[in-house]
Amino acid sequence: MKKLEVAVLVISFAVASSICFAWECGKAPPAKDPQRIKAGEAFPPLPLPATPLRRSERKNPPAPPVLVGKVICGSDESWTRAENDIENLLRLATQRIGVSYQAIKINLKGFSFDPDEIPILYITSVEPFIPDEETIEKIKEYLEKGGFLWVNASSGSPEFLKAMVGWIDRLYPDRNMYIAYGNHPIITCLEDITNVKVLRENNPSTESPNLRILNLGCRAAIILSPYDLGCGWALHTHPWGVRYQPEDAIKIGMNMLTYCLGWIEFGKIYGMTPLYVEKTKKKEGKLYIGQIVHSGDWDPHPSAVGKLLKKVSEQTGAPVFLDRIAVDLKKDSLKDTPILYITGHFNPNLSEIEIKKLREFLLNGGALFADSCCGSQEFTDSFRNLMKKTIPEAKITKWDFNHRIYKVPFKIERFQNLSENDPPLEIYMLKSLPVVIFSPYGMGSGWEGIPRPYTKEIYTEHAQQIGVNIITYLMTN
């Protein structure tokens, strides 16, 4: 939202409530419900003595669809500090991005946990909230069917935050929550919220947004704010706790809405795309790829490598092993592995032991190819730093479109969403041989065939083509 637009909104609410930001926790200034009349009702009645037409009464519009369910959690004073925060955000969204949705309050005990009914659950409180085990399992099913969970620490409550992080960790013990990286779609999809104002005990400071996310695939299914958003959405503040300045809280909320609306349909596909499974587990005589396991969200598109190898077999006739092979550099042997693949959204944080193992693999004739899933800047930066540690003597180059890697078996002259003169591959050379091929643009979603909204990805057709070309080139070099 532009500063001028926010200023107009804030001023209008200030007029309605004397001084808008003098509001303590509670309801945002009320807004009248819109009314609609038929087009003909706008005309005045015919002058007498003609018989006037009967004028119908004004009617309220049909209720907009429900987008957000605000979860009833604990006593009223704990979760209703900013009582109509989400309702007000949706009202502002109608003006800002032209969408009309409503929010309702729900009790999880009576909820269907069907994201088609309510796509987003919103939990906010100052007191700890821990659902029972049955409800936690239902929330997990809801998320994996495409639902979203928004978590807001009202007043920046550390007690609420600790409880939420605790049971989310039980929900997905094998997944981490990360701070959203600098070019994550939540940071960039509508407003640029790279820097925002945070109020600590009413003292402002400019910071990066501190949103935490938990990914299912490439989708931020859980979005958690350790700083209070609700008061900003309700357009009020107070001199305690930790919260975003209202103007920036609204921007963050608009980005969250935009992001989730873009992902609602694609999120339902998670878990529905089957993995290739070999009937016999013999890899001998077949081409296979090992995918490196790491702590930076290593497996965002589980079916991608299998689908790529199937495409390689179709184009080259090479026998391939389609099962995904997860490689732990700390303990797995790489003796018979010809090619490794690494991807992710966040810093892989490989240990010294893993770096040493990877270096030995590359020096002994192995090849690594990598891509930054969703075009993550964090993964891109950390991967380049990783290569400086692993093979510091390597020379980095870019091959233009005349190189064989862009010609066999598919001829690629340009990439639809990239500059014509900007080939997407970085090549790391050792002794005149390419040992690492890296793309700062995501390719895996294209191999998998599932779009990722608002991301820096190579489109499906070209992603599949360049993937096949890379494997073909490494097989023959």
Could you characterize the architecture of this molecule?
This is DUF4159 domain-containing protein. Pfam families: DUF4159 (PF13709). It comes from candidate division TA06 bacterium ADurb.Bin131. This protein has 13 helices and 17 strands. By secondary structure, it is of the alpha/beta class. It has two domains: 243 residues, Rossmann fold (3-Layer(aba) Sandwich); 187 residues, Rossmann fold, CATH 3.40.50.12140. The strands form three sheets. Strands 2-1-3-4-9-8-5 form a seven-stranded mixed β-sheet, sandwiched between helices. Helix 9 links the parallel strand 11 and strand 12. Helix 9 packs across helix 13. The N terminus is likely disordered.
Question: What characteristics describe this protein?
Answer:
single chain; seven-stranded mixed beta sheet; Rossmann fold; DUF4159 domain-containing protein; 477 residues; DUF4159; 2 domains
Taking the sheet with the most strands, its summary is:
7 strands, mixed
How many helices does DSSP assign?
13
Please count the beta strands (DSSP E, at least 2 residues each).
17
Q: Percentage of helical residues?
A: 25-40%
Unreliable residue runs: 1-24, 26-55
Beta-strand residue fraction: 15-25%
> How far from one another are the termini?
52 Å
InterPro entries: DUF4159 (IPR025297)
Protein name: DUF4159 domain-containing protein
Domain DUF4159: 74-261, 291-475
Pfam family, one: DUF4159
